[in-house]
Amino acid sequence: MVQSDVVQPASTAPRMPDPVTYRRAGPGAFITSWRNFLFLIIGLAALAYGWKVTQVDFVGLVVNLPKSERIFVSLLQPDVWVMTLADAPLQVGTANDQSSGAQVGDWTLTVSPSGVTAGQQLTIALSGVRPNTQFNLYLVDNRGNTTPIRVNRPTDAAEGREPVKVDAAGNYSLSFAMPASVAAGEYQVRAELPPGHAAWRGPWRFSETFETALVKMIETIFLALMGTFFALVVSIPLSFLGARNLMQGSAVGWAIYSAVRTIFNVLRSIETLILAVVMAVVVGLGPFAGVMAIVIHSIGAMGKLYSESIESIDPGPIEAITATGANRLQVVLFAVLPQVVPQFLSFTMYRWDINVRLSTVIGLVGGGGIGYILIQYINLSQWNQAATALWMIGIVVITMDYASAIIRERLV
Amino acid sequence: MLRIENLRKVFPGGVTAVDDISLTVPDGEFLVIIGLSGSGKSTLLRCINRLVEPTSGRIWLDDVELTALSPGQLREARKRIGMIFQQFNLVKRSSVMTNVLSGRLGSISPWASVIGRFPPKEYERAYANLERVGIPEKANQRADTLSGGQQQRVAIARALMQDPSLMLADEPVASLDPATSHSVMKYLEEINRQDGITVICNLHFLSLARRYATRVIALKAGQIVFDGLPEEIDEERFRSIYGEDAVEVEIR
Fold it and tell me: What does pTM read for this prediction?
């Protein structure tokens, strides 16, 4: 609306439009209004202040990116499997003058002598290995317990240790005196390739990191499942009380409806991470804290969806079943339930899917699951191990997402 | 016998749908209510079984005053009043059999209905009623796989499960084509003639009213403007009910 100071002539003749009106059309029109100009200034001021308080530093981002190269490279090399080069038998407690060995492909592991007493010199040698390959040496007892002899650790470079690797000719040799702390018995000397150097030769096994992450991932999926289930048990009965079409008609009904909807909205608005922190204080660190965090948030989220799907049903069957003389419970069972069951199943699948995603981060604050070990790996800068957890989360979340989409499509 | 005295229904918005209607329907009558959309036909019908709560006035079915009943007594009374609807109002995802059986909900024990278990004799009756409306072979299909006419016949079978003494039909054929309309109306006529069930039926088409009704009343703005035999509705009466510009469309 164009304001004009000029008093309009008291004429009934049609007035020509003010030429100024035309000039104010087009993209430039916005800035010519003082009020809009003021909004623009306020907007720019807000952005400037935001830039300052959030310490925006794009130059630093670009400059520092190469320094993090190691992290990005590690993230592409998850710790999933190790190659067992070879196991060579070693007897501790009984000396002999023979040697033992194992050959896998072109590689040879030699232990001499193959029987030592405490304090006796022992030589472990590798040959025929791809030049400069890093590897680990372990002592394995007959129950399968491994003790590192020489191993590479992610922190070696930072702490100034030389990597354990074969020389440019592919050979390695280590001599040491058998410590007295090693009990007498049958052992194996095991040489294995660490992750990131895996060539497809020789027997392999999943790494400890992978096994730990897998167990924790399964825990995460079930954490989400239990959270979803408990929330389901509570929210389905409540959702009928929070459906306007079932509760209208009386003041009491309206009061219950309003109360239930308010509860849903409050529960839904509390962030699961915050709930997980609070629950970790209440029930202690661990998966159950995560379950409770998910339960509380999901009751609100699922209850609202269920109520809305009840509200969107065809009212006709309700009317028809009511007209037959059925009571309220029968009306719900025969006219409402058959109409909402597919949506309920679909929403529940969807919520489980969301909750698996939430569970992965709930672990970061002590709620159990895979997030709990992920944050430990990150804190210890074990990027290969962190990568294992991250890749696993990614694969599981994408799979769940896809599977739930397919199932939901079939249901509705 | 159904007796309505000074019935009024004013909706919360202030619209008077039924304006002081008094009416007596003797047993065995096939009463057709005609009138324009919004003339109060549906509201009048729903006031009888109190799906719509009347604002004032009284309704008797035989010697029971429907308007004075408590919720529990009302459910008892509703068992004697069958009702079918324009949109059939079947539970679409349930089987035809379940839909028919649900007409019996008021008469079986609440616990049996919670677990969804009906006595065997109810299944037999449901099957007999489906046979009566000519679609026993559809019993185990989902209701939404049936055509409109078949769905309305399922709705009739559901109402018959109640052993009603009164059948309310709210525009039962308004969503159907002419041929199907006649087949549904014939079933209503049959239960009226053979079982002596009083039928009160809302209709749009005068031709159907002329063909099936034993008595016609016409509503306009919530009031009765005609009450008589179907053949008494001539050109002039028709104009007074439907307005000056109306032209009669026939369903044959």
Answer: 0.70
